[in-house]
Amino acid sequence: MDLVTPSIGLIVWHTIIFIILMFFLSKFAWNPIIKFIDQREEKIKISIEKADQVKKELKHVEDQKNKILKETHVKRDMILKEAIQIKEKIKSKAKEEGMIEKKKIIEETKKNIQIEKKVAIRQLKNKIGDISIQIAEKILKKELDQYDKQDKFIKELVDKLS
């Protein structure tokens, strides 16, 4: 049983050694250990603060990115609307110009047809006049072949004129 129960002398020596050890540890080891732990705690605190700051900056950058994307989408939509309006204006203008050009061409064609019609009628009248003269000439030659008939015809003409 001696081994299980310590003697008073042993307890006193253990206590003295423990106190001396605590004294030396507190004098020489505790300050550096506590200083190291405090420095480590400070580094961790700074790292956490930096991480929080980076998180905030990242959120701010994300918000700016979203804002810029929205602005870009709005600008894109405006540009598309303007492009569609310009396209419609150009299309409408081209259609108007096409209609005006079509009307001009139709009017010119009508004028040309009228002019050609008048020329054709004039040529036809001239041709009919020439043919009438030729027919009259042939008829007169036939009728006036004989001298008596010529004389009679001239007298009738003179009588009608007088």
Give the overall silhouette.
rod-shaped
Count up the domains.
1
Low-pLDDT runs of 5+ residues are none
What is the succession of H and E elements? HH
Instruction: Assign a percent range to the helix content.
Output: over 70%
Describe it for me?
The chain has helices at 8-143, 147-161. It is mainly α. The protein has one domain (8-161). The longest helix has 136 residues, at 8-143. The model has no long low-confidence stretch (mean pLDDT 88).
Write the topology of this structure.
Blueprint: H1 8-143, H2 147-161
Task: Give descriptors for this structure.
162 residues, mainly alpha, 93% helix, single chain, rod-shaped
